Each structure stands twice: as C-alpha cells, then as structure tokens.
Amino acid sequence: MDGIFNIYKEKGFTSHDVVAVVRRTIHMKKVGHTGTLDPDAEGVLPVCVGKATKLSDVIMDGRKSYRAMLKLGVTTTTEDASGEVLETKPVDFNEEKIREVVDSFIGRLEQVPPMYSAVKVNGKKLYELAREGKEIERKSRTIEVYDIRIRQFLPPDRVEMDVDCSKGTYIRTLCADIGKALGCGGHMEELLRTATGAFSLENAIRLSELKELAEQEQAEEALLTMEEALKDFPVIKVAENSTKLLYNGGKIREKFFEQKPTSLQVGEIVAVYDFENNLVGLYEIKQEEGFFIKPFKMLIKE
Prior knowledge:
By secondary structure, the protein is α+β, with helices and mostly antiparallel strands.
C-alpha cells in the first residue's frame, strides 16, 4: 500500500494522533504526516503511507490555504483561543481600516515564530520552553502570504478570512500581527486548513470513515496515488533507451527526453516518468553543456 490518505483532522487530535490512528487502522508502520496542525485546528492533513512517505517533505513544502477567524481586542499567550488572556482593548470596528491593514500583510514578510510552536532553538522546542515559563528571542523567518480574502466582517470584533501562504507561515501569528497593527491586539479564534499542495477539503476523509473502509477491507480505495500528489509538478518523460540509466539514478541528458516542459529552468524540480509512464522520481534540472536531469528523490526504491 503506497500513497497518501487525505485526512480531515478534527479538533482535539494532534497530527501525531492522526498518524497513530492511521497506522493502527491499516496495520502498517511506514506512515507519516506532512506538517503539523495544532490540536484545536481542523482540516486537510495528508498522511503518507509506504513509499509515499518519501514525499512527506515535498507535500509539506507546498502552498497552503486556510480559513481563519480573527478576534480583535484580545491578546493571548499562545496567539490563539487556547492561551491565557494577556490584554484586552476596545475595538474600533472600521471595516475600511481593517481591510487596508489586512491587505498590507499580503506579500513577503518577516515573521517571528510564536513561543508556543514546535520550532527548535538549541535542540529544544519553543513550546517546551514556554511551558517552563521561559521566553527567548526568536529569529524572524521569511514567509510569503500570496493572498488574503476577507469572507465576512462580524461586528463588534471578528473577521473571517481566507489566507493562501507559503510553508512555515503561522496563521495565529498573522492574526496577532494584524491585531497589533490595528492598535487593539487580536488572536486566532478558529482555524481550518482548506488545502495543502494538491490536497483539498473536497476529497478529504475523516478517521471514522477510514476505519469503516478498513473494516470492509476497502481502505486502499481512499488512497491517493503519488502521481496525484505530484500533479502540479512539471513532467519529463524519458526515452526507452535510457531506462536502465534512469532506474539506476543516473543523470539523463535532454536528448533523451521524449516529453518535457515548454521551458527548462535550472534548479526546477520535475516529476520524471519512464517510457511506459511509470513514475520514477523527482529530478532536478541542471545545465552543463546543455540541460540534464539529476535525481532529487527516487520513488521506485525502498
């Protein structure tokens, strides 16, 4: 069984809880998630099984989409509703001003990870230090917010919005920063991840549904293929006379490409198939006396 279950993580589960349940349900050890979701958050959590665990970091690197509820006027220790209240302030619920401030957070940003996060500093996770009552200086990280769309204003103090962003973006920190920029503070009250990479809510299944399928020995029906997970990657198909070299992880020059993107970009990662359309792996485009591809992540070997 090799592929990805697109799990709808419900509130109360950690990402590790989900992996443990999937592992027990399908009786496999080789199972891994593709990026943590806080216990109070819901939504898309792809879980990789078998050979597809090699794609965990690739899926994790993909574009993310969230639906968040921002509550203004209340600042918390964790930047979400689970934390202790640090400060409350009156809210000037001016929709035009709120929209202007929200729009200012679209683009490349420097974001400081929250203390209650899994980021490691000197080998220790920040949330472990936070639980000990310690707060340390954190380095900011460059993230990108591709778009923020306000779904609805909910006076007197709430704003629901959809966010498309890069990996490593903390939506609760984004909410807290928007509140700070508005002068009243704020925190993330609710969070739903609506998509990550090629995976979205539309084809996500709950753990209870997976268990029902497993009881009927039909769990594999819910498994999405590695090809589906990589559908947004450019494709190169290699000629038959290079099959042996391809399967041995050798570099393949452009003259052996049967199918290729309209333009080749050095450093780009592409999905590579053999002449029979079997997925072999992810390769990186290089250039040295012409273009060639070199293995980035082989998917045919254990």
